[in-house]
Amino acid sequence: MSMVDLRNVQAFLAVIREGGVSAAARVLHLSQPSVSARLRGLEEAVGEKLLERDGRRVRPTAAGRSLLSAAEELARASDDFGRAARDLRGLKRGRLDIGTTDVASIYVLPRAYRRFVERFPAIDLSVAVEGTTALLEALRAGRIELAVANLPVEGDDLAATVVDRDRLLPILARRHPLASRKRLRPGDLADVPLITFKPTSITRREVDRAFAESGTRPRIAMEISSPEAIKKLVEVGLGFAVLPERSVRAEIRSGRLASPAIAGLRLERKIGLIRLKHRYLSPAAHAFAALLVEGVDREPAGGEAGGR
């Protein structure tokens, strides 16, 4: 049997429903010869005569009756597919897969999540939390549509929009000998163990660059992926760290951590909404991107690192 054309099946059902080719042509907004041609195409594909005239009406043959249920099911499936496609365009159903870093997921995106879920409750939102390098791999592999991650990122295939800026602050345990000083020189930290992110981290590279430009090379004691773990290790006095301000603001205000200013050291973290330039974005992805860009809580960044 040849491939069956859905339009021919629809013509077959219309003729049976309306009782004739002329009436079916009016319903389908086609000419009578066009409907007849579609019927011939279906019979040729099936290899059986499917319709016969009974007086003034056209009715299905035995072969036509045996295929009628399957034809109706196929037509319903086509209608369901069309409705599902319209629902996707109207954001009445679907799924959105995005990825983000740990810090952005906790301190930047929660309100965007809430607005999206409230506005589009029928869209399932799936969020993968990874480092920036892993997120870009997932983006290129098609496992996620959008990434919210640290900038800059490399690749001519990527488009990025800055959605958040935050200072990177040096932190020390409140009982550390340097914690009581309001201002430090980069060299004051040369012998203090640095607890930092892994080398693949963009934040780590920014910290390394800033200290190198100051002529100081901190002594790296531990490399950890989790900013929450880094904070805890600093709190118990194992060294100092440099983390985004939002992630340490509560601890600095409560006095659990200190953040003295470091002269001449300017550290800023940028977070961007990243997508592939030439890949199709679903309506849900467009909607999430618009909510994020228009509603993120931006705070001014700049000045010397620390000072709290």
Helix content: 40-55%
Provide mean pLDDT, rounded. Answer: 89
Work out the number of β strands. 13
Poorly predicted residue ranges? 297-303
How many structural units, i.e. domains? 3
**CATH class designation of the largest domain:** Alpha Beta
Write the CATH architecture name of the largest domain. 3-Layer(aba) Sandwich
How would you characterize the largest beta sheet?
7 strands, mixed
Query: How large is the count of helical segments?
Result: 11
Shape: rod-shaped
Question: CATH superfamily membership of the largest domain, which one?
Answer: Periplasmic binding protein-like II
Briefly note the CATH topology name of the largest domain. Answer: D-Maltodextrin-Binding Protein, domain 2
Proportion of beta-strand residues: 15-25%
Give the tags:
two-stranded antiparallel ribbon, alpha/beta, 11 helices, D-Maltodextrin-Binding Protein, domain 2, 3 domains, 7-stranded mixed beta sheet, 308 residues, Arc Repressor Mutant, subunit A
What does this structure look like?
This protein folds into 3 domains: 6-89, Arc Repressor Mutant, subunit A; 94-162 and 270-295, Periplasmic binding protein-like II (D-Maltodextrin-Binding Protein, domain 2); 167-268, 3-Layer(aba) Sandwich (D-Maltodextrin-Binding Protein, domain 2), CATH 3.40.190.10. Mean pLDDT is 89; it is low at 297-303. Helix 8 (202-213) links the parallel strand 8 and strand 9 (219-223). 33% of the residues are buried. It is rod-shaped. It has helices at 6-18, 21-28, 32-46, 62-89, 102-107, 110-119, 132-141, 202-213, 227-235, 245-254, 283-295, and strands at 51-54, 57-60, 94-100, 123-129, 146-151, 158-173, 183-184, 193-196, 219-223, 241-244, 257-258, 261-262, 268-276. The chain is 44% helix and 23% strand. The chain has 308 residues and is an alpha/beta fold. It starts with 5 loop residues before the first helix and ends in a 13-residue tail after the last helix. The longest helix is centred in the first third of the chain and has 28 residues, at 62-89. Strands 3, 4, 5, 6, 10, 11 and 13 form a 7-stranded mixed sheet that branches. Strands 1-2 form a two-stranded antiparallel sheet. Strands 7-12 form a two-stranded parallel sheet.
